[in-house]
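yo

u said u wanted the structure for the complex thing, so here. seqs first:
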Amino acid sequence: MKTIFRHFTHCIIAALLAGMTSCKEEGLGNVDDIPGLGGDVWAEGPIDKWIQDSLVAPYNISAKYKWDQFEFGNMTKNLVPPDESQVIPLLSTIKKAWTTPYVEEAGKVFYNKYSPKFFILSGSNEYNVESGSITLGTAEGGRKVILFGVNLFKIKGMQGYDPGRDSSFVKDWFLHTIHHEFGHILHQTVFYPVEYKNISKAYYQGGNWINWSDAAARRDGFITAYSSSSFDEDFVEMIAMMLTEGRAGFDKIVNSIPEGTSPSGVTKAQAQAALRQKEAIIVAYYKNTWKIDFYSLQTKVRTSMNKLF
Amino acid sequence: MKRSFLYLLFLTTVFFSCENKDDTVFEESADVRLNAALASYEKQLVEAPYGWNAVIYPGGGGSYGFYFKFDDKNRVTMYSDFSDAAAAKSKESSYRLKAMQTPSLIFDTYSYLHVLADPDNEVNGGTLGEGLKSDFEFSIYGDSLSEDRMAFVGRKNQSRLVLTKATQAQATAYTNGDLAKAVLFNNISKYIPYFKRVTLGANTYEITVNQNTRTIKMTWLNGNVPKTFTTSYYFNPTGVAFVSPLVNGSQTITGFTNITWNANSTQVGFSGGGASGVVVSAIKPLSVDLAAARRWWQAPVESGGDWRSSMGFHVNGVDDAFKVNDLKDDQGRPYWFYMYSPAFNPQYDAFAPIFNDEDGIYLDNGHAPAKPTFTADGRAVFTQLGTFGVIPAGGAVDKSGDLLFDPAGFYLIQTSDETYDMVSAKDAKSWITWE
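structre next:
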């Protein structure tokens, strides 16, 4: 009994102390106009209006084209902002070849729920001088996508457009990046069937992918060299390649795998079968998980791209 | 005991925590002052009625002239001396002021200013991944501002940007295309001979322009003593502006004005130092560096290296006139550089293209000159002692050898601590750059 009482007194003293330490509540008082709070502001122009009307209002997607160093992960890189004349052509291309096909196939609710919400544009490429590579785009947490090389982008009707060079550039660069990153968002939301991982299990290269060519990777049953880096990259590279190449283009790639056995011991038939199995799983995954007809989506993406180039 | 010590600690917090008085040194808070500063900087930029003359000194070196006109809707219109097109036609882009670690001026969409900072080396001839190491985000320091002058420091590469208030006449000059007329000076690179001179008043100067580093070197004779002066330069609507002035006795040259270019006679003319002149070509240096040829030959012997040229000979206005860059060796390996190796062995030197692949570097065929003769008037004269391998007749190696063994020989012009231009003494229309 005594001990309990003693504990009580301690508690009371502690409570008393706590009461004394908490000072009189004051309001926030005078809060000054903190510069930059709520984001940067500037006099809005036609590009800002286009983004507002075409992306923010319908899809709640914002696109930052004015320079903000802090949006870019690697602060040591030298980059430049986009040229204003490049912004609308690039964004409308992405809208036509990515947004519209998905909205038409899966509906606005699906698209608005899963699409990344922040696009950040860099005018120049990001050069990785030591490895000799170039960063095309990056995605963070399924919310933010950074696109590099915006000033190099050209489509039909723009000055200096060269169909041979520029169509593959835009396809492999911007559209591939977007479809790739969106693929990540989908499988991070609902995982793909685990059988996918077993198809080429023995042949993944990990970080060594950079030393592979696409042609060599295809002989092992990967659609691109980057595919061979991990299960997830394989899955989204398949999605990006199938959508941007179209069904005929994809078939052509599969059929072009040469005779013979690859250095890893994969035969032509095995490599082709692996790519076909992966294709089948993706088509089924889109159907079962997202109620999307993949081949119809593929047709829509390709049709819109054909109009641009 | 321990416990009461704890209570004591608690109590001390009680007495200290409620001291809650804001005593600031300044009358207004940091945010209020920051907003006021940003507003005043923007006001100063916008309210210059005729815009600003600007010079940027990129972190990577050089100096470039610009003109900016800011408006109050975050728009800026500019001219730049970096290219003929940018000097002739204005471009509009955006800017904003932002509070970062310091108040900052950001040119936030692509403009002529960004051309220098572009990491794509094809845009500006700089380094891949860095460009010319220039800037488009600048820190503003209040003590670097005055009514007619604003100086900023680049946030990434520490370039300096200096704005001076333009006059109405200057603004009109930009819109009239005067900057485009000034950059006609760049045509000085079209002179066929290596050496160029201009006489301004009583003085004759040899003029050497490096358009990549934006430097001008002037050489003159003071009696018989050669004097040299080197400065960075940029363009403004009146012509070429020197970053530092040349003072030669009573003549002071701060730049060149009234630039003219006659495409038919390939002649650049200008005024400077109170006089006018036309640049004429010369077949030999104004003052020959008599020891240069011997120094050039000796340097690799001492260091154990060799001289290398990526472009081979420049002849009659054509870079790599013999197309050494297209050479392949008998195994199909690509050309890497042309080599002159003094004292290649005790009997002879080597002058030959070098090829490379992953495994190594290769000498397939070329010439073996004897050690050159160094003449009293400063030339190096080369003679052939033998050859390496079989030199295809009429090919790039054959032609390069023929030129090297020209009996008139060559002047060696030291262009930096470790580079020389070797210029034909016959007519100064051929040269090769060794590095």
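Chain A has two domains: 44-160, 190-309. Strands of chain A lie at 62-64, 118-121, 126-128, 133-135, 137-140, 144-147.
cya
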